[in-house]
Design brief:
With about 160 residues, the protein is α/β, with parallel strands linked by helices. About 40% of the residues lie in helices and about 10% in strands. It has a 3-stranded parallel sheet.
Length: about 160
């Protein structure tokens, strides 16, 4: 995983595993392993009230895969900015893109300490030619965003 030293860092609050977390609940619905009993219980209660949510979560991931594959193979996009990354599960943006074209560059952006902890460990290049980076940044605070994406980006290529 590349992380530019210019990446803005703020103190990470403690991650409370006794309280359900939306990213871990979504991970549970996707069939991921990065969740706790409290997340599965909350997710199951929600799914009981809204049974379509598990299908919606899984179909949204399938859409991401189809969209990235299309953009890489049919349109020629080689750079992706994934805002609001969520927990890595399977077929993450960089995996799909770099499987289709090894030179793809993907920058993940999130400000959730839980997501960033997983990103540091799991969002790594799948090819020697590609770039996978993550940025600790808040979509609602573009002025406070780190310059790190620019270090992983090239203006020679269209972005998706």
């Amino acid at each position: 995983m590349n992380q530019d030293p210019a990446t803005r860092s703020r103190p990470s609050p403690l991650i409370d595993t006794s309280v359900p977390h939306s990213a871990r609940v979504w991970n549970h619905w996707l069939g991921g392993k990065d969740n706790y009993a409290v997340d599965r219980e909350a997710g199951d209660v929600f799914a009981a009230a809204y049974p379509q949510i598990v299908t919606l979560a899984r179909e949204s991931r399938r859409f991401l895969v189809r969209a990235v594959e299309y953009l890489v193979t049919e349109v020629g996009i080689r750079q992706f900015l994934d805002i609001g990354t969520g927990l890595p599960t399977m077929d993450n943006t960089h995996q799909v893109a770099q499987r289709a074209a090894p030179d793809c560059r993907v920058v993940y952006v999130d400000n959730d300490p839980l997501v960033l902890a997983h990103a540091r460990a799991l969002l790594v290049n799948t090819t020697a030619e590609g770039v996978t980076a993550y940025v600790d940044s808040d979509f609602h605070d573009p002025e406070g965003s780190s310059p790190a994406p620019r270090a992983s980006w090239t203006s020679r290529s269209p972005s998706g």
